[in-house]
């Protein structure tokens, strides 16, 4: 050994190993390390050795000693045959002396190489070879277990298929002989497939047994003689089964290769072969995979239809069509291919895609062309079944009557109701007049009566109409000291339009100037015939102040209710009408509702107009909380998401999703109507300019906030009637509740005035109004509100121009005066002529000039006026084309302020 045997560097150049086997050449290349750095690397180029039969011999692990020692021959263990799928079985080993002689004769000895390897390198190679052999043994065991599991599954599948075949054979036994002959070929094919599968299972079991027998009994290492040739690492990696693609070569960088596309598509025969496995590779038959039972049944059914010349029956469906639908969704609902629908549209001359949206008419045409029936639906279908559901006659029970008190303002309607209820509602009304609609319930002789109190002001006509629609009996209150007034006539019209009976209550009979007979005579003019005058309408003379005949009035109401035989079903979902709605600061949105059908309880989900909510509490007119509200019962409902409009219908729904769906649909309709109304009022910019130029229409913008929805509705109706062709009120926003900062911002943006009816602005809103300089007007009586808005709108009217004739003067002579110009010598022939008044120069009955007088003199003095019959001198401002014989007409123009 030399001194540098273990030295891996020689001559300053780094080497990987001192061993240089044959067929290997070394070289040095420059490797780029990045960022301008390079490194010299020693590489080896190995020539590929041609494959020889002796190179395929199995590799025997080597146990190297620190020094080569020649040992005596040891008895060999029994030869073990290892299963190698890619090479023949190895030959049995010969004694070491014979192997040494053969190696000496066939190739050069390589014992010198073993002497040059260090002990660590020899030990590392031995451990690597031992581990590789252990892994190979474990892989063989794992593969054997996998093959056993697959064989068991295959056997189970064969049992299931045999059971299925037996069942189908039993079913087919009842069929006709002709069909049996047609099925015979398929059954024989199935039996052949089962036999083949059984043979495959037997071969797999045999291969499994052979693989288990081929496993090595021990993993003991055998030390080969020194003269045996060792395979290189490359040859070992190539000869190692199933590890060439997974285990990379030590010290070599493996670059992943991209997946290669198949050179040609698989044919039917290749597709039937299935996946290449070890069993399939060792199988000598190489038969392709058999067809599945489902494929065989499909093929058999297709063959039978072709023989019987049968066509597949088309399924006709009922297609539900909304207002708009895509072609793809339509084809899915029809169970047709979208391509077929597109082809049909192309034949009709329309080029469309599956994602295009079509209307219901075109969708109905397509569905009818394909033979399907159509059911049209729309967005309004969400409200189907919400109202007017049929009731069973057996569930109907008697209910209290609903009575509406109607009449002219200040005829004592609320006072009469207070006397009946023994309350004092009228004392809390501003100005002593009722401006809210109220619902109350009283009890007389064990019978309940529901009263609805309506205002009598002209602006509350909508409230009276709602009261008449929701009532059973209308009480017409007329003051005995007064006569039939306009709102009395209107109440009669509402009651007749609703088709409800009328009871006339002649109030204030306790006054000395009362004349009930005069009231009865005036009612005859409006087709109201009372009983005392031979008619059918009940009339009662009452006094709310003294309580006279109040019991007779209640008895008349109960008598009329008994005649009407009022009934309702309390065991169904509740329906009714919203009488009034308001926004309470502590309770939120509060709606006063009148239950007309069913029973309303807390916890139910209701939809009222475009609002919905879960009922949190039911409060009566006396402030008491109740657990339920039956038919003809007025209650306050808490828990709505917003404030509904007065007069809206409400109903109980089954869940929140439907309530939300109905509410969103109604809100969308409300927005669309508002947008349409605004667009109709505003129009385009060109239309606005044309309107201003032609008519001079002026608008008075307003933001109105009230305590209840009914008052806001009445105010809007009253202001709408004030409008003319020149000026009108435009309500920018209206709502129930106090005035907030958002109302101030809206009024500032639209330059509108803010009106609060029985409400006030909060601190933040007042501060914002002071900063923006916006005035907030507060009212509690509708008379004052309408009068002030009317006066403000009158200020927008242009003043009226009125012309007053003063007199005529005839020009006798024209004088040309230096520094003054032409002066006309005139005689006043009619009326008088005033200085500073307007004049017209008339020649041959044609107005030549219109202007003002510059001077008016009599003799040499300036005078203010000249009466008829006298002569004077007149000169025009900036005009001198005057002639003798012309007539001067004098007039005065006055501007008069207009009012609505």
TrEMBL record:
The Tr-type G domain, residue ranges: 398-565
Location of region: Disordered: 1-310
Residue spans of biased composition, Low complexity class: 59-72, 79-97, 187-202, 210-225
Subcellular location: Cytoplasm
Pfam families per UniProt: EF-G_D2, GTP_EFTU, GTP_EFTU_D2, IF-2, IF2_assoc, IF2_N
InterPro entries reported for this sequence: EF-G-like_DII, EFTu-like_2, IF2_assoc_dom_bac, IF2_II, IF2_N, P-loop_NTPase, Small_GTP-bd, T_Tr_GTP-bd_dom
Sample GO molecular function, one term: translation initiation factor activity
Stored CDD domains: IF2_eIF5B, IF2_mtIF2_II, mtIF2_IVc
Major location category of this protein: cytoplasm
Cited PANTHER family: TR-TYPE G DOMAIN-CONTAINING PROTEIN, TRANSLATION INITIATION FACTOR IF-2-RELATED
Protein name from the UniProt record: Translation initiation factor IF-2
Organism per entry: Rhizobium herbae
Phylogenetic placement of the source organism: Bacteria, Pseudomonadati, Pseudomonadota, Alphaproteobacteria, Hyphomicrobiales
């Amino acid at each position: 050994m030399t001194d540098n045997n273990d030295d891996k560097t020689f001559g300053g150049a780094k080497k990987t190993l001192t061993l240089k086997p044959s067929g290997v050449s070394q070289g040095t290349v420059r490797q780029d390390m990045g960022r301008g750095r390079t490194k010299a690397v020693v590489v080896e180029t190995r020539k590929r050795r041609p494959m020889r039969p002796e190179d395929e011999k199995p590799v025997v692990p080597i146990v190297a000693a620190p020094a080569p020692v020649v040992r005596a021959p040891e008895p060999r263990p029994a030869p073990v045959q290892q299963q190698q799928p890619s090479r023949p079985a190895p030959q049995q080993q010969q004694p070491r002396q014979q192997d040494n002689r053969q190696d000496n004769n066939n190739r050069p000895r390589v014992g010198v190489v073993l002497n040059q390897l260090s002990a660590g390198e020899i030990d590392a190679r031995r451990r690597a070879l031992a581990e590789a052999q252990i892994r190979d043994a474990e892989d063989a065991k794992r593969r054997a277990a996998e093959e056993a599991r697959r064989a068991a599954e295959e056997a189970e599948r064969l049992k299931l298929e045999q059971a299925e075949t037996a069942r189908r054979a039993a079913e087919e036994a009842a069929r006709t002989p002709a069909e049996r002959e047609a099925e015979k070929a398929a059954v024989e094919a199935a039996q052949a497939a089962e036999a083949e599968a059984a043979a495959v299972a037997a071969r797999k079991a045999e291969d499994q047994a052979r693989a288990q027998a081929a496993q090595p009994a021990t993993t003991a290492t055998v030390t080969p003689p020194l003269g045996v040739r060792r395979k290189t690492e490359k040859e070992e990696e190539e000869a190692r089964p199933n590890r060439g693609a997974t285990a990379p070569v030590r010290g070599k960088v493996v670059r992943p290769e991209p997946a290669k596309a198949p050179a040609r598509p698989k044919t039917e025969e290749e597709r039937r072969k299935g996946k290449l496995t070890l069993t399939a590779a060792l199988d000598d038959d190489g038969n392709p995979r058999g067809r599945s039972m489902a494929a065989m049944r499909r093929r058999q059914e297709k063959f039978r239809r072709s023989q019987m010349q049968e066509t597949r029956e088309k399924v006709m469906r009922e297609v539900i069509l909304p207002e708009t639908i895509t072609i793809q969704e339509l084809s899915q609902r029809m169970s047709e291919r979208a391509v077929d629908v597109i082809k049909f549209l192309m034949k009709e001359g329309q080029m469309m895609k599956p994602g295009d949206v079509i209307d219901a008419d075109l969708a109905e045409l397509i569905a009818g062309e394909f033979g399907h029936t159509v059911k049209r639906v729309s967005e309004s279908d969400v409200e189907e079944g919400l109202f007017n559901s049929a009731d069973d006659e057996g569930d109907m029970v008697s209910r209290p009557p609903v009575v509406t008190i109607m009449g002219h303002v200040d005829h004592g309607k609320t006072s009469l109701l207070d006397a009946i209820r023994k309350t004092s509602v009228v004392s809390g009304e501003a100005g002593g007049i009722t401006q809210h609609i109220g619902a109350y319930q009283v009890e007389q002789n064990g019978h309940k009566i529901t009263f609805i109190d309506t205002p009598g002001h002209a602006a509350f006509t909508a409230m009276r109409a709602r009261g008449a629609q929701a009532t059973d009996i209308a009480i017409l209150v007329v003051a005995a000291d007064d006569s039939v007034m306009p709102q009395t006539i209107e109440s009669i019209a509402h009651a007749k339009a609703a088709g409800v009976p009328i009871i006339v209550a002649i109030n204030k009979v306790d006054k000395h100037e009362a004349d009930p007979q005069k009231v009865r005579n005036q009612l005859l003019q409006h087709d109201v015939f009372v009983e005392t005058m031979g008619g059918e309408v009940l009339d009662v003379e009452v006094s709310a102040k003294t309580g006279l005949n109040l019991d007779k009035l209640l008895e008349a109401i109960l008598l009329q209710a008994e005649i009407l035989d009022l009934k309702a079903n309390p065991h169904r979902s509740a329906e009714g009408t919203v009488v009034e709605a308001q926004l309470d600061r502590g309770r939120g949105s509060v709606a006063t509702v009148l239950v007309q059908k069913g029973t309303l309880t807390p916890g139910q989900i209701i939809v009222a107009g475009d609002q919905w909510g879960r009922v949190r509490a039911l409060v009566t007119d006396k402030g008491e909380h109740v657990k339920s509200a039956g038919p003809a019962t007025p209650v306050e409902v808490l828990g709505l998401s917003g404030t509904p409009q007065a007069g809206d219908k409400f109903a109980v729904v089954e869940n929140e999703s439907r309530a939300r769906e109905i509410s969103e649909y109604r809100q969308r309709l409300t927005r669309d109507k508002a947008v349409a109304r605004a667009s109709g009022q505003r129009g385009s910019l060109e239309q606005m300019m044309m309107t201003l130029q032609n008519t001079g229409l002026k608008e008075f913008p307003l933001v109105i906030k009230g305590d209840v929805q009914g008052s806001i509705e009445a105010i809007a109706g009253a202001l709408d009637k004030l409008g003319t062709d020149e000026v009108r009120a435009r309500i920018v926003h209206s709502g129930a509740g106090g005035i907030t900062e958002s109302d101030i911002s809206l009024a500032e943006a639209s330059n509108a005035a803010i009106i609060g009816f029985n409400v006030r602005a909060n601190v933040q809103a007042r501060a914002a109004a002071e900063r923006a300089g916006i005035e907030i007007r507060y009212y509690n009586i509708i008379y004052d509100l309408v009068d002030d808005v009317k006066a403000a709108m009158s200020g927008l009217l242009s003043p009226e121009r009125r012309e007053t004739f003063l007199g005529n003067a005839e020009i006798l002579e024209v004088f040309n005066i230096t520094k003054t110009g032409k002066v006309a010598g005139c005689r006043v022939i009619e009326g008088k002529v005033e200085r500073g008044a307007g004049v017209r120069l008339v020649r041959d009955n044609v107005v030549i000039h219109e202007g003002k007088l510059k001077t008016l003199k009599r003799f040499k003095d300036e005078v203010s006026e000249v009466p008829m019959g006298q002569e004077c001198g007149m000169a025009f401002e900036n005009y001198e084309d005057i002639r003798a014989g012309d007539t001067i007409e004098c007039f005065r123009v006055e501007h008069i302020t207009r009012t609505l």
